[in-house]
Amino acid sequence: MHRKFLLIAVLIFSINTTLFSQEGKLDKGKKSLNRTNYSNSGGKKSTKNTNSSGNTSNNDDTINPFVGIVWGLFAYTVYGAFVETPWEVNGRMHDAEFSNYAYKENRYGNFIYTDSTNYNITRFDITNNFVIENKNLYGNNFGLNFRFLKRFAVDLDYLYLSEKVNGKRDSFSLYSALLKYHRIRTQRFDAWFGLGMMYVANEVNKTGFGLGVGAELFIAKPISLDFFHKWTNINNQEVHKTKLLLKYHIQNYQISSGYEHFKIGVSKINAFSIGVGASF
């Protein structure tokens, strides 16, 4: 009798283990993105009834000038933080241009402070990186970056991941499109932020508002350190994409290697990355 109970328990355990092992990171991540989570806020709105009177209008007249000053200072501060401060208008960074490619000369990376040479007003950067966490989970990361008007860029990115679990193959696709503004534009360091959209394909098929930040430090020719982080929200679950790469520049081409991290709902993936790129 005891032996029968033991065999039944072992059988149940093995079945549960098999079922659990069949659910990989990509499958769990996509399932979590498909769940709709509602915040319990009580569903009640408190409303306040305000009685207007002649005194109220008089108070508004006295407060409005102060509000206008505060709002003006706030807007001016925000503009300075995200676009340009008054001290930068007459600085060299104000007129910085895109270089044809990083390290065209020893002293600068993606931006230059001189127009003594004929530089392009636009530039295309194409990158392709192979990413792998283990022998069963790997993928490809393709990016296209179009720079224009000295400060702006359109960033298009496609991530494809594939995972093999118990002989079955699962996949995940993430598309992103951001309009980037290069806030810091020095010859050795540049930094940007971007706004746009991110779309999760496969069984999710949802689009979310996308945000991104990034920077590249040009240490010494031909080495640079590149970082970016993009994220969105799908059904109250976060989707993140982060990379930290060391680049080796050879004229207008580059070889990169480093670390990439992906968060797909409840699943986290830490991958080794190696790739190539070119600037035109």
Description of the structure:
The structure is a single chain. This protein has 280 residues and is an alpha+beta fold. The chain contains four helices and twelve strands. A ten-stranded antiparallel β-barrel has the order 3-4-5-6-7-8-9-10-11-12. The chain has a two-stranded antiparallel ribbon with strand order 1-2. Strand 8 and strand 9 form a beta hairpin. The N and C termini lie far apart (76 Å).
Count of β-strands: 12
How far apart are the termini?
76 Å
Helix share bin: 10-25%
Q: Any idea what the shape is? A: flat
Give a short account of the largest sheet: 10 strands, antiparallel, barrel
Question: What keywords describe this structure?
Answer:
4 helices; 280 residues; two-stranded antiparallel ribbon; 10-stranded antiparallel beta barrel; flat; alpha+beta; 49% strand
Please specify the SSE layout and strand pairing:
Blueprint: H1 2-21, H2 25-34, H3 54-82, H4 86-89, E1 97-98, E2 111-112, E3 123-134, E4 137-148, E5 152-165, E6 168-185, E7 189-200, E8 206-220, E9 223-234, E10 237-250, E11 253-264, E12 267-279
Antiparallel strand pairs: 1-2, 3-4, 3-12, 4-5, 5-6, 6-7, 7-8, 8-9, 9-10, 10-11, 11-12
